[in-house]
Amino acid sequence: MGYNKNSQLKILMLGYIVRGPLGGMVWHHFQYVLGLRQMGHRVHYVEDSGDDEYCCYNPENGTSGQDPSHGLTFIQSIFDAFDISEQWAYYDKHHDQWHGKLSSNRSELFQDYDILINLSCSNTIRTWWSYIPVKVVVDTDPVFTQIRNLTDPARRALTEKHNVFLTFGENYGIKQASIPEDGFPWWPTRQPIVLSAWPETAAIPEAKFTTVMQWESYPSREYRGLTYGQKSESFIAYLNLPAMISAEFEIAMGSENAPRDIIRKHGWTLSNPLTVAADAWKYQKYIQGSRGEFSVSKHGYVVTKSGWFSERSAAYLASGRPVIVQDTGFSTHIQAGLGLMAFSNIEEAVDAINMVNSDYREHCRAAREIANDHFNSSSILGDMLDYAMRTRSN
Length: 394
Prior knowledge:
about 400 residues, alpha/beta, Rossmann fold, 2 domains, 8-stranded mixed sheet, 6-stranded parallel sheet, 15 helices, 18 strands, about 35% helix
């Protein structure tokens, strides 16, 4: 029997906010909580430190360690802002200690969940969640997730603790794509956007095209003689773009090894992502203050034609900001050409920017429509729940 949209589920949402307290990460994960609650479900957000000694990042001093204090203050401010302050908990494995107001209500925290959703496979599945009948893992990093499952026994063992498998790699398993197959039955999904939390804002024609990116999130992966690279490998082909077109570009760029001086010499403006994405509201204002987004995609997403689409780009669209991004094969599912432009080389990128500039306000209008048609949280999460409940019951 499939999921009845009129029934209320008790949902355990596992994410990565305390350990990664930055604006983009918050919206990426929190919109699942907010969207599911808007649909009428009981949702608890829980995060686990895991066993890694350097589990918690503190952007204020750039350090990582076991101390979750910065992240705990950060997450409380988010849940307070949406008046759900008692709906989260954090388990610190290193000190065997629970945090968050939800943790004081153990009967609520440990009983009667219908479904568990582990976003990005970012949390350990502890034994106290073993009774939950439906355990969903959402792969937000396709290609690299599958390679991890094929080469890292510990990561595969964690994936195997789930029984429903969703992926942002919307082209997984189709002939035109070449995502390595790891034996799990991945089903396509994409980022849910809570449109009420991302209002359309007035266009700013004089603003810059922007994006927020990591030069390298982690090292490139090799599998069966092929290399799957990061954005650093994709970006080089577009280094000369500012000299080819009358437009301004700004990148809030992370990674210590990014060649910032070279990038600036080619006409790009660089800003600090720890400033523009210090919290959820600054990140949102940065996107809303942009002309639109221009961005490359991870090399691994592109060469496999994975169909991946960025949660950040979806937020630009929701804000009424045109998005010009390197095609990963997403144009198979989301029509590009107005509001959303896909490119595969620098000439196509120039043409796409010119098209946006020639009718900017129409592209802004279309961007919001795309967000509503393709990323609306009620549709994305409704489909996810229907698939998860139906798959597990079969």
